[in-house]
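Researcher: Checking consistency across runs. Here is Phosphoesterase RecJ domain protein again:
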Amino acid sequence: MELKRIADEIKEAQNIVLTIHVNSDGDCIGAALALMLILDRYNKKNFSDKIYKMKNVRLVLDDKLPKFMEHFKERALVEYYPNFQMENIDLLIAIDSANIERIGNAAELRKNAKKMINIDHHISNTKYADINYVENVSSTSEIIYRFLDLFDIELDKEIASFLYLGIINDTGNFTHSNVTPETFLISSELIKTGIDNSEITDVLFGVTLGKARLLGEVYRNFEIDKELKFAYYYLSDKKAEELKIGRDETDGMSETLLDLVGIEASLFLKDEKEEKVKGSLRSKSSYDVNEIGMSFGGGGHKKAAGFNTAENPEKVIGKVKEELKKQLTKQ
């Protein structure tokens, strides 16, 4: 019912702004662009002879797009804060953002919005909007897929490409435990449109030279707590500069550590701007890393979570170990 309510709110609105989280990934971008395209089709289907009634839908981001978006012409649809301006916003819709801080300075747009909607799949979501739809599924893109029926829009290749991008991003190309039969059913419908799923996968997961250098560094110098079955690595700004690593080339390192045989939890830490560090936590079956992420003001899912903190890396690693020990003793 809540999704239908959101669809009804969108149908009634004229000026709509979509926004996504900083350090954007394939799911938030894919979900937002897919929704934008669905609403574009809705405009053309219902208001082709009444242009003045067409919805004004825009997508704004308080960050740079990741490098893989260079492969998609639709990147031109994304606008950037603070250069973005719109008065009299009827709806501000945050997509794939577990808390309002995740959308960065774009949160300032709420002051000009009559209503805010939050659509997300993270169980740590703080339900910060006027209307919140949070469901623990593989990805926010899986949720956005349902808007096709709600707006009576036929799935096409362009929409399918972005939904597929989002789903494979958050399922690790269908390798994570968040994959369900429904995820596969939706993905099969997306592939039926003729999308090049192999190309989308290569764009998202292809290994650049910088990432190859980082993989070598991580494999040589990661550390393990054998008792906790916990692998971790900290990437300093100095080391990143030495290896000539771009910001996007660190994605997936926590999964790389978790793939080690015998490891049940992993942490990849890296320096961020403003003297903060960003942590990416992953687990298999025994640990709940969402709880740990939330202890640093972040969160996500039981088996995948993230956070940003001003604490120094050594303290962060120590605190994560303490939390893992607490969970281990309860098992």
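Researcher: Does this match what you'd expect to see?
Model: One thing to look at in this run: The chain has two domains: 2-205, 209-330.
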